[in-house]
Amino acid sequence: MNIDINQILDEARDMGASDLHFTAGLPPIVRLHGSIQKMIKYPECTEPIIVNVINQITTIKHKQIISKGEDADFSYVSTAGFRHRVNVYRQRGYHAIAFRLLRNDIPTLSDLLLPNLLADFALRPRGLVLVTGPTGSGKSTTLAAMIDHINRSKNCHVITIEDPIEYLHNHKQSMINQREVNVDVDSFAGALRAALREDPDVILVGEMRDFETINAAITAAETGHLVLSTLHTTGAAETIDRIIDVYPPHSQNQIRAQLANSLVGVVSQTLVPTADGKGRVAALELLNVTDAIAANIREGKIFQIPSAIATGRASGMFSLDQDLARLVRTGIITDEVARSRCQDPNEYKRFLTVVV
Q1: Does the residue 356 lie in any domain?
Q2: Do 97 and 124 fall into the same domain?
Q3: Residues 6+ apart with CB under 8 A from 153
Protein backbone atom coordinates (compact mmCIF):
# COMPACT_ATOMS: atom_id res chain seq x y z
CA MET A 1 0.00 0.00 0.00
CA ASN A 2 1.33 3.44 -0.95
CA ILE A 3 0.40 6.55 1.03
CA ASP A 4 -0.73 9.82 -0.55
CA ILE A 5 1.47 12.18 1.43
CA ASN A 6 -0.71 15.22 0.69
CA GLN A 7 -3.79 13.46 2.08
CA ILE A 8 -2.08 12.37 5.28
CA LEU A 9 -0.53 15.82 5.79
CA ASP A 10 -4.00 17.35 5.49
CA GLU A 11 -5.35 14.85 8.03
CA ALA A 12 -2.50 15.58 10.46
CA ARG A 13 -3.12 19.32 10.09
CA ASP A 14 -6.87 18.88 10.70
CA MET A 15 -6.02 17.03 13.92
CA GLY A 16 -3.93 20.00 15.09
CA ALA A 17 -0.64 18.06 14.95
CA SER A 18 2.69 19.88 14.99
CA ASP A 19 4.75 17.04 13.48
CA LEU A 20 4.32 13.90 11.37
CA HIS A 21 6.77 10.96 11.37
CA PHE A 22 7.33 7.91 9.17
CA THR A 23 9.54 5.13 10.54
CA ALA A 24 9.73 1.41 9.77
CA GLY A 25 7.57 -0.89 11.88
CA LEU A 26 5.02 1.73 12.99
CA PRO A 27 2.04 3.42 11.36
CA PRO A 28 2.49 7.16 10.72
CA ILE A 29 3.00 9.02 14.01
CA VAL A 30 1.77 12.52 14.83
CA ARG A 31 2.81 14.83 17.65
CA LEU A 32 -0.33 16.37 19.13
CA HIS A 33 0.01 19.02 21.87
CA GLY A 34 3.45 17.64 22.74
CA SER A 35 2.59 13.90 22.87
CA ILE A 36 3.02 11.35 20.09
CA GLN A 37 0.24 9.07 18.89
CA LYS A 38 -0.28 6.54 16.10
CA MET A 39 -2.52 7.14 13.09
CA ILE A 40 -4.03 3.68 13.40
CA LYS A 41 -6.12 3.87 10.21
CA TYR A 42 -2.84 3.44 8.30
CA PRO A 43 -0.70 0.27 8.13
CA GLU A 44 2.76 -0.09 9.62
CA CYS A 45 5.34 1.62 7.46
CA THR A 46 7.72 -0.54 5.45
CA GLU A 47 10.82 0.61 3.61
CA PRO A 48 9.00 0.63 0.22
CA ILE A 49 6.17 2.76 1.67
CA ILE A 50 8.64 5.27 3.15
CA VAL A 51 10.71 5.42 -0.04
CA ASN A 52 7.51 6.07 -1.99
CA VAL A 53 6.73 9.02 0.30
CA ILE A 54 10.28 10.32 -0.16
CA ASN A 55 9.87 10.13 -3.94
CA GLN A 56 6.65 12.18 -3.69
CA ILE A 57 8.31 15.09 -1.88
CA THR A 58 11.90 15.32 -3.16
CA THR A 59 13.66 17.05 -6.02
CA ILE A 60 16.43 15.39 -8.03
CA LYS A 61 19.01 17.25 -5.89
CA HIS A 62 17.51 15.92 -2.64
CA LYS A 63 17.25 12.39 -4.08
CA GLN A 64 20.98 12.52 -4.83
CA ILE A 65 21.78 13.58 -1.26
CA ILE A 66 19.56 10.83 0.19
CA SER A 67 21.02 8.18 -2.15
CA LYS A 68 24.44 8.86 -0.58
CA GLY A 69 23.03 7.96 2.83
CA GLU A 70 23.16 11.59 4.00
CA ASP A 71 20.43 13.46 5.91
CA ALA A 72 18.43 15.91 3.80
CA ASP A 73 16.69 19.06 5.08
CA PHE A 74 14.24 20.86 2.83
CA SER A 75 10.80 22.44 2.67
CA TYR A 76 7.75 20.88 1.04
CA VAL A 77 4.55 22.61 -0.05
CA SER A 78 1.54 20.29 -0.14
CA THR A 79 -1.10 20.37 -2.86
CA ALA A 80 -3.30 22.26 -0.37
CA GLY A 81 -0.65 25.00 -0.31
CA PHE A 82 0.73 24.42 3.21
CA ARG A 83 4.45 24.54 3.96
CA HIS A 84 6.36 21.86 5.84
CA ARG A 85 9.92 21.53 7.12
CA VAL A 86 11.22 18.06 6.27
CA ASN A 87 14.16 15.95 7.41
CA VAL A 88 14.90 12.60 5.73
CA TYR A 89 17.35 10.41 7.63
CA ARG A 90 18.37 6.78 8.11
CA GLN A 91 18.00 4.56 11.18
CA ARG A 92 19.02 0.90 11.47
CA GLY A 93 19.55 0.83 7.72
CA TYR A 94 16.04 2.10 6.88
CA HIS A 95 14.81 5.52 5.81
CA ALA A 96 12.73 7.71 8.12
CA ILE A 97 11.03 11.08 7.65
CA ALA A 98 10.14 13.90 10.05
CA PHE A 99 7.72 16.62 8.92
CA ARG A 100 7.17 19.86 10.86
CA LEU A 101 3.76 21.30 9.94
CA LEU A 102 4.07 25.06 9.50
CA ARG A 103 1.43 27.75 9.59
CA ASN A 104 0.84 29.66 6.36
CA ASP A 105 -0.18 32.74 8.30
CA ILE A 106 2.37 34.48 10.48
CA PRO A 107 1.13 34.86 14.05
CA THR A 108 1.62 38.20 15.77
CA LEU A 109 3.50 38.56 19.05
CA SER A 110 0.15 39.12 20.79
CA ASP A 111 -1.33 35.99 19.12
CA LEU A 112 1.50 34.04 20.78
CA LEU A 113 0.90 35.77 24.15
CA LEU A 114 4.48 37.06 24.07
CA PRO A 115 5.52 40.09 26.16
CA ASN A 116 5.83 43.62 24.77
CA LEU A 117 9.58 43.59 25.38
CA LEU A 118 10.00 41.35 22.30
CA ALA A 119 8.42 44.08 20.16
CA ASP A 120 10.93 46.51 21.67
CA PHE A 121 13.80 44.12 20.86
CA ALA A 122 12.54 43.80 17.26
CA LEU A 123 12.65 47.56 16.69
CA ARG A 124 16.14 48.15 18.09
CA PRO A 125 18.42 49.80 15.51
CA ARG A 126 21.30 47.37 16.10
CA GLY A 127 22.54 44.51 18.27
CA LEU A 128 22.04 40.78 18.76
CA VAL A 129 18.76 39.17 19.87
CA LEU A 130 18.77 35.43 20.58
CA VAL A 131 15.77 33.10 20.84
CA THR A 132 16.81 29.83 22.48
CA GLY A 133 15.33 26.52 23.52
CA PRO A 134 15.26 22.84 22.59
CA THR A 135 14.12 21.56 19.20
CA GLY A 136 10.39 22.04 18.77
CA SER A 137 10.08 24.84 21.31
CA GLY A 138 8.65 27.38 18.86
CA LYS A 139 11.81 29.43 18.25
CA SER A 140 11.17 29.83 14.52
CA THR A 141 7.59 30.97 15.15
CA THR A 142 8.70 33.57 17.70
CA LEU A 143 11.32 34.89 15.27
CA ALA A 144 8.77 34.97 12.44
CA ALA A 145 6.44 37.05 14.64
CA MET A 146 9.31 39.46 15.45
CA ILE A 147 10.22 39.82 11.76
CA ASP A 148 6.54 40.42 10.96
CA HIS A 149 6.43 43.13 13.63
CA ILE A 150 9.41 44.82 11.97
CA ASN A 151 7.72 44.40 8.58
CA ARG A 152 4.54 46.11 9.80
CA SER A 153 6.27 48.87 11.75
CA LYS A 154 9.48 49.92 10.06
CA ASN A 155 10.77 50.97 6.67
CA CYS A 156 13.93 48.86 6.32
CA HIS A 157 15.67 46.00 4.47
CA VAL A 158 15.46 42.57 6.11
CA ILE A 159 17.53 39.59 4.94
CA THR A 160 16.74 36.15 6.33
CA ILE A 161 19.07 33.15 6.06
CA GLU A 162 17.17 29.93 6.78
CA ASP A 163 17.54 26.16 6.46
CA PRO A 164 14.89 25.73 5.14
CA ILE A 165 12.62 28.79 4.77
CA GLU A 166 9.69 28.17 7.10
CA TYR A 167 7.47 31.27 7.01
CA LEU A 168 7.04 33.31 3.83
CA HIS A 169 7.02 37.06 4.45
CA ASN A 170 5.37 39.48 2.04
CA HIS A 171 6.80 42.98 1.64
CA LYS A 172 4.86 45.44 3.84
CA GLN A 173 6.60 48.47 5.34
CA SER A 174 9.90 46.63 4.88
CA MET A 175 11.61 44.89 1.97
CA ILE A 176 12.29 41.26 2.93
CA ASN A 177 14.65 38.98 1.03
CA GLN A 178 14.66 35.35 2.19
CA ARG A 179 17.62 33.10 1.35
CA GLU A 180 17.60 29.33 1.80
CA VAL A 181 20.75 27.36 2.63
CA ASN A 182 21.63 24.83 -0.11
CA VAL A 183 19.25 26.59 -2.52
CA ASP A 184 20.24 30.27 -2.60
CA VAL A 185 23.42 30.09 -0.50
CA ASP A 186 25.94 27.43 0.54
CA SER A 187 26.09 28.10 4.28
CA PHE A 188 24.88 30.36 7.10
CA ALA A 189 28.36 31.84 7.60
CA GLY A 190 28.89 32.51 3.88
CA ALA A 191 25.47 34.12 3.55
CA LEU A 192 26.13 36.27 6.62
CA ARG A 193 29.38 37.57 5.16
CA ALA A 194 27.64 38.28 1.86
CA ALA A 195 24.72 39.99 3.64
CA LEU A 196 27.01 42.74 4.86
CA ARG A 197 27.44 43.76 1.19
CA GLU A 198 23.68 43.68 0.53
CA ASP A 199 22.70 46.80 2.51
CA PRO A 200 20.57 45.12 5.22
CA ASP A 201 19.18 46.79 8.32
CA VAL A 202 18.03 43.51 9.91
CA ILE A 203 19.52 40.02 9.44
CA LEU A 204 17.78 36.85 10.60
CA VAL A 205 20.12 33.87 10.93
CA GLY A 206 18.07 30.68 11.28
CA GLU A 207 20.61 29.03 13.58
CA MET A 208 24.08 29.83 14.93
CA ARG A 209 25.47 26.32 14.39
CA ASP A 210 29.21 26.83 14.51
CA PHE A 211 32.03 29.18 15.44
CA GLU A 212 32.18 30.78 11.99
CA THR A 213 28.46 31.66 12.03
CA ILE A 214 28.53 32.91 15.64
CA ASN A 215 31.55 35.10 14.89
CA ALA A 216 29.97 36.52 11.73
CA ALA A 217 26.68 37.23 13.55
CA ILE A 218 28.41 39.13 16.37
CA THR A 219 30.46 41.10 13.84
CA ALA A 220 27.27 42.04 11.98
CA ALA A 221 25.60 43.13 15.23
CA GLU A 222 28.65 45.24 16.12
CA THR A 223 28.71 46.96 12.72
CA GLY A 224 25.28 48.55 13.03
CA HIS A 225 22.82 45.79 12.11
CA LEU A 226 20.07 44.15 14.13
CA VAL A 227 20.76 40.39 14.08
CA LEU A 228 18.20 37.84 15.26
CA SER A 229 19.15 34.19 15.64
CA THR A 230 18.64 30.96 17.61
CA LEU A 231 20.68 28.59 19.76
CA HIS A 232 19.76 25.20 21.23
CA THR A 233 20.33 26.30 24.82
CA THR A 234 17.94 26.29 27.77
CA GLY A 235 18.59 29.57 29.59
CA ALA A 236 20.08 33.03 29.16
CA ALA A 237 23.20 32.40 31.26
CA GLU A 238 23.85 29.07 29.52
CA THR A 239 23.42 30.80 26.14
CA ILE A 240 26.06 33.41 26.96
CA ASP A 241 28.42 30.73 28.29
CA ARG A 242 27.90 28.63 25.14
CA ILE A 243 28.88 31.53 22.88
CA ILE A 244 31.96 32.38 24.95
CA ASP A 245 33.03 28.73 25.12
CA VAL A 246 33.23 28.32 21.33
CA TYR A 247 36.10 30.83 21.33
CA PRO A 248 39.66 29.81 22.24
CA PRO A 249 40.72 30.82 25.78
CA HIS A 250 42.94 33.69 24.61
CA SER A 251 39.95 35.29 22.81
CA GLN A 252 37.36 34.95 25.57
CA ASN A 253 37.96 38.31 27.21
CA GLN A 254 37.50 39.97 23.85
CA ILE A 255 34.26 38.11 23.06
CA ARG A 256 32.89 38.95 26.52
CA ALA A 257 33.48 42.63 25.73
CA GLN A 258 31.89 42.26 22.29
CA LEU A 259 28.82 40.51 23.73
CA ALA A 260 28.48 43.12 26.47
CA ASN A 261 28.38 45.81 23.78
CA SER A 262 26.16 44.05 21.24
CA LEU A 263 23.76 41.67 23.03
CA VAL A 264 20.26 43.16 23.30
CA GLY A 265 18.39 40.27 24.89
CA VAL A 266 17.86 36.53 25.18
CA VAL A 267 14.47 34.83 25.00
CA SER A 268 14.63 31.23 26.27
CA GLN A 269 11.42 29.32 25.68
CA THR A 270 9.74 25.97 26.06
CA LEU A 271 6.27 24.91 24.92
CA VAL A 272 3.90 23.59 27.58
CA PRO A 273 0.41 22.08 27.11
CA THR A 274 -2.50 24.36 27.98
CA ALA A 275 -4.99 23.51 30.70
CA ASP A 276 -7.82 23.02 28.20
CA GLY A 277 -5.82 20.34 26.34
CA LYS A 278 -6.29 22.14 23.03
CA GLY A 279 -2.80 23.45 22.40
CA ARG A 280 0.51 24.63 23.79
CA VAL A 281 1.82 27.97 25.02
CA ALA A 282 5.37 29.29 25.33
CA ALA A 283 6.81 29.65 28.83
CA LEU A 284 9.79 32.02 28.79
CA GLU A 285 12.88 33.19 30.56
CA LEU A 286 13.52 36.75 29.39
CA LEU A 287 16.83 38.61 29.68
CA ASN A 288 17.03 42.31 28.86
CA VAL A 289 20.68 43.39 28.69
CA THR A 290 20.78 46.42 30.97
CA ASP A 291 23.99 48.22 31.88
CA ALA A 292 24.29 46.01 34.98
CA ILE A 293 23.86 42.81 32.92
CA ALA A 294 26.40 44.08 30.37
CA ALA A 295 28.87 44.65 33.21
CA ASN A 296 28.30 41.07 34.42
CA ILE A 297 29.06 39.76 30.92
CA ARG A 298 32.14 41.97 30.51
CA GLU A 299 33.53 40.93 33.90
CA GLY A 300 32.83 37.21 33.40
CA LYS A 301 30.22 37.12 36.17
CA ILE A 302 27.70 35.11 34.15
CA PHE A 303 26.70 33.17 37.28
CA GLN A 304 25.06 36.35 38.64
CA ILE A 305 22.69 36.70 35.68
CA PRO A 306 19.93 34.27 36.84
CA SER A 307 19.40 36.20 40.08
CA ALA A 308 19.47 39.50 38.15
CA ILE A 309 16.73 38.14 35.86
CA ALA A 310 14.56 37.06 38.82
CA THR A 311 14.79 40.54 40.35
CA GLY A 312 14.63 42.46 37.06
CA ARG A 313 10.87 42.84 36.67
CA ALA A 314 11.23 46.64 36.33
CA SER A 315 13.33 46.07 33.20
CA GLY A 316 10.87 43.52 31.77
CA MET A 317 12.84 40.46 32.86
CA PHE A 318 11.57 37.28 34.48
CA SER A 319 12.72 33.71 35.08
CA LEU A 320 11.11 30.54 33.73
CA ASP A 321 9.74 29.72 37.18
CA GLN A 322 8.16 33.19 37.42
CA ASP A 323 6.53 32.77 34.02
CA LEU A 324 5.26 29.27 34.80
CA ALA A 325 3.73 30.62 38.02
CA ARG A 326 2.06 33.43 36.04
CA LEU A 327 0.62 30.95 33.54
CA VAL A 328 -0.79 28.87 36.42
CA ARG A 329 -2.24 31.91 38.23
CA THR A 330 -4.02 32.98 35.03
CA GLY A 331 -5.38 29.47 34.41
CA ILE A 332 -3.55 28.97 31.12
CA ILE A 333 -1.64 25.87 32.31
CA THR A 334 -2.03 23.48 35.22
CA ASP A 335 0.08 23.37 38.37
CA GLU A 336 1.04 19.77 37.55
CA VAL A 337 2.49 20.76 34.18
CA ALA A 338 4.32 23.74 35.67
CA ARG A 339 5.92 21.60 38.39
CA SER A 340 7.20 19.19 35.72
CA ARG A 341 8.93 22.05 33.87
CA CYS A 342 10.12 24.34 36.65
CA GLN A 343 13.82 24.78 37.45
CA ASP A 344 13.53 25.23 41.24
CA PRO A 345 10.34 23.82 42.82
CA ASN A 346 10.71 25.98 45.94
CA GLU A 347 11.15 29.17 43.92
CA TYR A 348 8.24 28.24 41.67
CA LYS A 349 6.03 27.66 44.74
CA ARG A 350 7.04 31.06 46.13
CA PHE A 351 6.20 32.80 42.86
CA LEU A 352 2.71 31.25 42.90
CA THR A 353 1.81 33.38 45.90
CA VAL A 354 4.26 36.30 45.61
CA VAL A 355 4.42 38.22 42.34
CA VAL A 356 7.99 39.53 42.11
Answers
A1: no
A2: no
A3: 122, 123, 173
